[in-house]
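Two proteins, back to back. First:
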Amino acid sequence: MSETSLGPEDSKIITLARAARARNGTAEGAAVRDETGRTYTATDIDLPSLKLTAVQVAVAMAVSSGAVSLEAAALVTEGDEPGGDDLAVIEDLGRAVLFLAAPDGTVKGRYI
């Protein structure tokens, strides 16, 4: 599966996640789309007192902005699978699909 074989809205969140990751120079970039079509982008946080995945941050941003469910999410990372915490936080807001993509945008998997 490639980014070009996805719908335009799903390709968009992968592109946004890639851009966030590149802009901040972090290990992960994520983007989520809520039930109204709004998107939220984030990167992972790795501080001595706070460690969150990019997906967790993006979901927190969506929820704090009033989102009650997600349509889709994208995680850009060099990892081969999303973490259990990422899948759990997506499931907290329904059954949205999570696209896992490499830094070059190649889709490596589709989850949930």
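And the second protein:
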Amino acid sequence: MSTASTRLPEGRYGRPSDERADRKLKIAGSVLGAALLAGIGYFAYHYVAENEISAQVIAFKASDDAVEVHLEVHKDSGASGYCTLRSQSSDGAEVGRADFRFTGSATRIDRVVTLRTTARGTTAQLLGCHTG
């Protein structure tokens, strides 16, 4: 009786993996992964740290031709900018959109602004705030 060989037949399954090629692939993957993390960190920092104005809609009251919006704005001292608001009707159509400017040295502004509409608005949405 003969014993079975534990070696694979030569040439049947291709070359054994090259350790140097594996090492190069691991290094390249590590460098690309680090670059991806650095890019995500860069954009996250600029999104959070550079945003000098933030706001929220506290309440709103709609009438047939306008929506009064109670808007609370937090900003850096001396920063100026604007916030964009919109209103939609009950069927989802946009009935009003406007930019409201904020300037001055106050860091917190609590103001009721009037958004004129073409029909009765049922919502008051803050689309965003920007410096400038």
